[in-house]
């Protein structure tokens, strides 16, 4: 019997994340191995890699599920599909975490050799991600969370803005980040995340649309008063109201100005001091002019 020949090839695969915010081209350190010869009489395909602990990893081909496995407590998975047909095939993988959130789907195009085992190793599935709101005012916050490989670094991207934030997954893989919306301009963003652990990095998660709106400014927030109240004459100004009707109109300007300058010319002008700073000057006269109504 011929001794089995094992060929191990390590190279960079071009992988497309099916549900990424935009097509993601990545150099991933996926290890592809081919075992031929010996007593192999089946065409098989093996997968191994990292995801969140106890996640259900699903493999599909041509839209149909052809295999599943459950990651261990540390987030590692390893399984083999038997009785595969040789030739160029496309397989897709995704994981569903313990919170029932699914990762984005990653596709691999592989040329299977007949009566040989092809292995894809060092696969790093993307993190899951959710957010507590998809629309937020700039004076508010939004919380992102999900599950990934334990102790991995999660980086959040806010496309098209060159802006990112990071979080660290705990030993169960859970991560979260609270963003203060004021850090971003009012606009619409595609938010996605990647995971990184040591020298291995995942592709992008499924994206979410986040809309950040300008903070609503109301008169109550700024303690503004209605225009009628603003134009109501203060007691000191009312002294210069010629006919006592509670307002000073443009035709009364000459009489009002004359009355103020008459008080100003007195040795001890008191009624012309409208801001109560102990003196009569141009500031007081400006206050008086402020209350002149053109209509």
UniProtKB/TrEMBL annotation:
Highest rank taxon of the organism: Bacteria
GO terms of biological process kind: polysaccharide catabolic process
Domain named EF-hand: residues: 228-263
Pfam families the record matches: Big_6 (PF17936)
Gene3D superfamilies, per the entry: Dockerin domain, Immunoglobulins
Stored PROSITE patterns: EF_HAND_1 (PS00018), EF_HAND_2 (PS50222)
GO MF, one example: calcium ion binding
Species the sequence originates in: candidate division WWE3 bacterium CG08_land_8_20_14_0_20_41_15
Name of the featured protein: EF-hand domain-containing protein
């Amino acid at each position: 019997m011929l001794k089995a020949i094992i060929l191990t090839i390590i190279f960079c695969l071009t992988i497309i994340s099916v549900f990424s915010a935009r097509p993601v081209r990545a150099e991933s350190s996926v290890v592809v191995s081919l075992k031929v010869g010996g007593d192999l009489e089946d065409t098989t395909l093996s997968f191994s890699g990292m995801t969140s602990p106890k996640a259900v990893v699903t493999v599909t081909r041509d839209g149909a599920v052809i295999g599943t496995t459950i990651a261990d407590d540390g987030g590692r998975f390893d399984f083999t599909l038997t009785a595969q047909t040789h030739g160029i095939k496309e397989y897709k993988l995704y994981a569903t975490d313990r919170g029932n959130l699914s990762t984005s789907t990653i596709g691999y195009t592989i040329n299977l050799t007949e009566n040989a085992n092809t292995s894809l190793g060092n696969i790093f599935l993307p993190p899951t991600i959710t957010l507590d709101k998809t629309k937020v005012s700039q004076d508010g916050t939004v919380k992102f969370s999900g599950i990934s490989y334990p102790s991995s670094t999660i980086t959040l991207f806010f496309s098209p803005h060159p802006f990112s934030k990071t979080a660290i997954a705990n030993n169960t893989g859970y991560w979260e980040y609270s963003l203060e919306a004021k850090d971003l301009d009012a606009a619409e963003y595609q938010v996605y995340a990647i995971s990184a652990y040591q020298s291995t990095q995942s592709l992008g998660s499924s994206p979410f649309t986040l809309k950040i709106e300008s903070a609503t400014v109301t008169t109550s927030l700024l303690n503004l008063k209605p225009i009628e109240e603003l134009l109501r004459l203060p007691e000191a100004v009312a002294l210069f109201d010629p006919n006592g009707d509670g307002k000073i109109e443009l035709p009364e300007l000459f009489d009002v100005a004359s009355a103020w300058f008459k008080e100003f010319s007195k040795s001890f002008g008191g009624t012309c001091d409208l801001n109560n700073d102990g003196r009569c000057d141009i500031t007081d006269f400006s206050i008086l002019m402020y209350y002149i109504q053109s209509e």
